[in-house]
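Summary for the steering committee. The consortium agreed at its last meeting that each partner would contribute one worked example illustrating the joint modelling workflow. Our contribution is presented below. We chose a case with several input lines so that the handling of multiple components could be demonstrated. No manual editing was applied between input and output; the record is shown as generated.
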Amino acid sequence: MPEAPAPLSLTVNDAAVTLDLPQGTTLLEALRADLGLHGPKYGCGYGQCGACSVLVDGQVARACVMPASAASGRAVTTLEGLGRADSPHPVQRAFIEAEAAQCGYCLNGMILQTVALLQAVPDPDEATIRRALRHNLCRCGTHIEILKAVRLAARYMAEQTS
Amino acid sequence: MTRPAITIWRHGQAGTPEPLLDIAADGRVTGYTGHVDLGTGLRTAMAQIVAEELDIAPGQVSMVMGDTASTPDQGPTIASESIQIAAVPLRQAAAQARAVIAGLASARLNAGIDDLDLRDGMIGTDAARLPIADLLTGPPVSLQLDPDTAVKPASDYHLVGRHLPRVDLAGKATGAWTYVHDVAVPGMLHGHVIRPPYAGRDSGPFIGRSLIEVDEDAVSGMAGFVALVRKGDFLGVVAEREGQARAIAEALPVRWATPPDLPDLSDIPGTLRDLPSEKRMLADRGDVDGALERAATTLTRSYAWPWNLHGSIGPSCAVADWREGRVTIWSGTQNPHMLRADIARLMDLPETAVDIVRHEAAGCFGRNCADDVCGDAALLSRATGRPVRVQLTREQEHLWEPKGAAQLMDVTGGLDANGNFDVYDFETRYPSNRGPNLALLLTGAIDPAPQPCDMGDRTAIPPYRIPNLRAAVHDMAPIVRASWFRGVSAMPNTFAHECFIDELAAEAGEDPVAYRLRHVDDPRTADLIRRTAEDGGWQPGRAPRLTRQGQIATGQGFAHATYVHGAFPGVAAAQAAWMAEVTVNRDTGEVILDRITVAQDHGLAINPEGVRHQIHGNVVQSISRAMGEDTRFDRTGARDAEWGSYPIARFEDLPEIRAILMERPEEPPLGVGESASVPSAAAIANAIFDATGVRMRELPFTPERVKAALDGQPLPRGLPAPADTAPPRWRRLATGVGAALAGGLMASAVGLAIRAEIPRVPRPDNIWSAETVERGRQLFAAGACAVCHTAEGGVPLVGGRPMETPFGTVYSTNLTPDPDTGLGAWSYPAFARAMREGVSRDGSHLYPAFPYTAFAKMTDSDLQALYAYIQSLDPVQADTPPASMIAPVNLRPSMAAWNALYHDATPFTPDRAQSELWNRGAYLVEGVGHCAACHSPRNALGAERGGAAHLSGGMVDGWLAPALNGTGPAPLDWTEADFLAYLRDGVSPRHGAAGGPMAPVVAELAALPETDLRAMAHYLASLNDTGKDRSDAAAPLDALALDQPLEMATGPAARLFRASCGACHITGPVPSATAARVPLALSSAVHADRPDSVIRAVIDGLPAVGRPDPRAMPGFGSALTDDHIAALARFLRQTLAPDKPAWDGITEAIGRARQP
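What follows is the complete predicted structure of the assembly.
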């Protein structure tokens, strides 16, 4: 029989957390409101724009369409969990150096999608990069700089592993 | 806070001092500006200007931007004037501070001021050098700004004009930056506003007066509810959490008056010409009328621009904190001081009681909902006495933002006998205002009468030598909310000027670039045009060149503009020129942008990389606008509410972009925020002309519109009208059923008696073994009893869930062992009789919505275990609502006749010819699992049809329950592994995921041992055995190939699908944990005979199903219009099930799904 939702246990940025959430809470709301992680952003609520992206068990996920309950027992990584300003993840470093943001609201999604892309395809060609980012929207038109950042990120990731 | 060591200030408009710059005792510098960073890198450029004047490291400078308590009122951050105007006093203040420091150093070091030099934060002579901070130990210095202070000559610059990394990106790339969306105030509540139906309208007497009633009682018991706030048409709820506020707002019953119709906004020229306007003459020189009479050639043309969305990626957000007669608002506003005045008016406060704390938001490019949401938050905070955060939804931002205004340009012009551009008569119509704050309008605080504004005149004068010129703007009140958007009116005006001069060049038989150059006087403009043409590889010649190979045509187009901002005649910002190269597919009308070459003359570039990014951004955004953006309205208001119906440019749409920064370091810096957008549409239209000979005089240049132009047809706007005009078949059907039922049951019901009551017993508790209760628990799950016996959002197992049947509504009953309202007083024989015969303890008949027809097949021992489990539950008192059935079924006795006809109470008999596994499966499926209750069609009397129809599919709650017997239209056969995956994990990647009423069933089945699930799968697979070889069924699916048709399809519905649904439903190179697991090409719903399940899924979404990684789909009901949903359904059917007939009744299915 259905029971009152049990507290939700998951791992966020390598720390075990337990949350008591009302039913229907999205993973995005849980991360932002309950855990104060503001890297993922609310953009559309329909998984269309990518601003809310996180990694769930290493796969990129759109946190606005993922019920928090679906992350039960899983490992979530947010932008904050990738790296910090003084020790950025190679992909973050590439985006900072390529100045691949204007307002920066879409930046979270661009970075997370790039991390996931480079896991799947370490040395993507231009067409693959564009295809991988096709559902990450940017209104400022920073696309040129973002493409540059992805290519730079691929280099940094390769350097890191070699 | 300690006082700064040095402060430079000026008198503000209210007479109070406003700081411009201060230096703390530790040498850190803070600059203050009333302008804000809209994502263009202004924070960095301003810091760079200050650091340059002070000769210190840019890292020592921070900028406070737009906080009303501490920054000067410099008007809104619009019109690219931040660097040209707002930075001027800041630079002077820095220079003045530098002089103060030099004076201090001179005294300390006993050196002449001219002998001192200031470098990297150190001042002194070659002999002695001090850090600035060492000089700041004396009493604080506070000086009024001296505008005559000498600033550095540009030739001495070593920071300005060079690349400086953006100061904000490290924080933004690591999640440490605080956007307004991230502001959290202790004790903060969450508000959610409910907007009126007149989406995106702001004038007319109905504004603020359309809310009829709202039923607070219906929601006040919902979790997290704090308050409902209503004033005029302003309506908002406040709750403890964001999700709760939204859920309450969505559940709130509200009645609004129907707003008056909008005019037909798809006809932009007709509508704009018809509406009242005030003509304002901007220029009248020479003799226009005479010149037109004398002209060798005259052309009369109209150019039209649609409404565009600003389209901020982050919907607007604000936090307000009302306490003791003051309000603080954390805001992403573009115009903090103007907002402060609006909030003061809304709250009836003096402006000094309002503080706006400005945080960055998503790029706005003009007036979006950033200010509106501040009004919302302020009202909700005052009503609750707590800080309230309001986050608008994507739909609200799309629908309500003041759009970039539509515009109509009517032009007549002519050539003299030598082909010179001799006369130009230009009129532009601009229906816009300054976007009054929505809260002021909704609450009735300001008059919603239509008010025009005067911003339609930007770049209304073309940059050419034309002896006879007349230019006028028709100031018009907005028809829908419309306000400034990047390039304001200059972009449409330039579209007209630059297309028209192209038309004249063609008439004169001259090369378009040479023709422009011959009419330009300004040498900087001429340089810019030449450089663009040279670097772009312009092919001189008369247009159209009509270069083509087969149906593929290529062309080049040119345009140029100087963006002029401010009140007419205004101030020139940077000028830009475009060369566009395009390929046009004449078969499909598709235009591919191959390469854009843009040169810009902006004088001195403060931060050249920043300028380059602005050029890139302007190019991408403006091609997005030109190629595909067009806001649609219906009679009520705006209707595009998400990114599928209003698509913007994506990475794959990007042309090659070459940006050229003209080197003019000796010239004053000019604004670069908008200029490179302005020539875009004309350059592309001129290139399309060069390729095809067809003039596109109205945006956007979608394939359908270009194709129509090529075919000489009127240009379509948006989605084609639904072709689905079939009569509402289901209504006819339903009527038929009702009639048959009335006739059939009326006769047989007569004379049948109610069955005997079985006496109440004390609740038999704690008499069964743990094993029995556990078996009962599993059977309870196998029957998914909890699903029907729990109302949505209600207490588990107490019933009350409405079951829609063709004969009316019946409610499920309380299954808990409460003696009065549940099963607590039921003896086992009473329970068994109900399960086997459909007769309640009191002897009345139960409706067959309760599937006793299946339960009758259960063994006695299983029934006992089930009974034991039910009696072990906690009792809950809860009455069942009475059924409302069509007579005569509401006479429950008539069910006895029904039973006589349709009920077979024989228990399950194993088939000895079959395996034990098969028999176990059959027992579970046909018995306690009662799969046929949903998956078999029912006859006119609501009975499951047997024989070949058994398990051949049915309808439940508006969802299709697909066939389980192999007769369904699923593209792939169901194998045992498929069934097992579906029952165990909630999803079969070869068929579909459990949605609608099946989703909770699958959740319940998790309690069953896998052996039982395997048995069910085995039995069901046996019904599907077609004898075919299924050895390939275990092979992995080629998702890329299966999605190929979705990828390749053309047309507006295909584009809608890809933008709206593609992120989850088209396989890309990156695996996603939120993508759909079932390729739509294999989805049972798409291949079904009816569209209902597809439509239900689109409107209501799907709950999280599937193990071990559950996936959900959001419902798009509030974001997509019926037209959009119908187009998607037709598109999926046509594209993925081309061998199957088109669906009938799509419109009706949407109507049914929309019913609450």
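The first helix of chain B runs from residue 42 to 54. Chain B touches chain A through 92 residues (CB under 8 Å).
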